[in-house]
Amino acid sequence: MPDNAKNLYESLKSARPDLSNVQYGVIALGDRTYAETFCNGGKRFDAILSELGARRIGEIMLHDASAGTMPEEIAVQWAGEWIFAVRKEAKLAA
Known about the structure:
The chain has a single domain (3-93), classed as Flavodoxin domain (Rossmann fold), CATH 3.40.50. The protein is built from three helices and four strands. It has helices spanning 6-15, 40-51, 71-93, and strands spanning 23-24, 27-30, 55-56, 61-64. The mean pLDDT is 93.
């Protein structure tokens, strides 16, 4: 877990809020040369959010720092698709 996300993650684990009205997406950053922990922070957030009742929209974006691509460039495309999915979900719920 990245240092700047530890407090939020630990707070979710200990407070265990009801997140059944929350929808979310995950962008996870990692390096495949560390296979055992690749994108582990994002994967752990996905697990706790789901456990607390939140619903993920779309797939997790897993960015590999060793691939030579810029995460910002990959994330822009992913975010556009994610926003489209969120809007689609909103229309179906209306």
